[in-house]
Automatic annotation (TrEMBL):
Annotated signal sequence range: none
A Pfam family it matches: RVT_1
Protein name: Reverse transcriptase domain-containing protein
Domain of life according to the entry: Eukaryota
Domain named Reverse transcriptase: residues: 1-104
UniProt organism field: Laodelphax striatellus (Small brown planthopper)
């Protein structure tokens, strides 16, 4: 970088809570841009539209009321790592379009 007088940037992803942070609308967009069929995207949107979670508050307090899932991919679902990868791929493509070189 110094020889070419180019700037060097770093992007760090906190994978600890990364699955929880994926915005659904951006995920559907990235899936469409990746060539996923609109039928599959509609199916996923429907699945995620009805997704809820409950929190175990301990022995005395029991389990919380259902909470709607408004972002993130479903924990423990076998499709979630692929969905997360598609979302990250969109970020990588954006950077490449801005003439940045992306290293993994």
């Amino acid at each position: 970088c110094q020889m070419r007088r180019r700037k060097l940037f770093g992007l760090f992803v906190d994978y600890e809570s990364a699955f929880d942070s994926v915005p659904h609308e951006l995920l559907w967009y990235e899936l469409g841009m990746s060539g996923v069929s609109s039928r599959m995207i509609r199916t996923l949107r429907a699945l995620y539209g009805f997704a809820t979670l409950m929190v175990d508050k301990g022995r005395e307090d029991g389990i919380s009321h259902p909470i709607n899932v408004s972002k993130g991919v479903l924990q423990g679902d076998s499709l979630s790592p692929l969905l997360f990868s598609c979302y990250l791929r969109g970020i990588e493509l954006f950077l490449e379009l801005k003439v940045y070189t992306v290293f993994h």
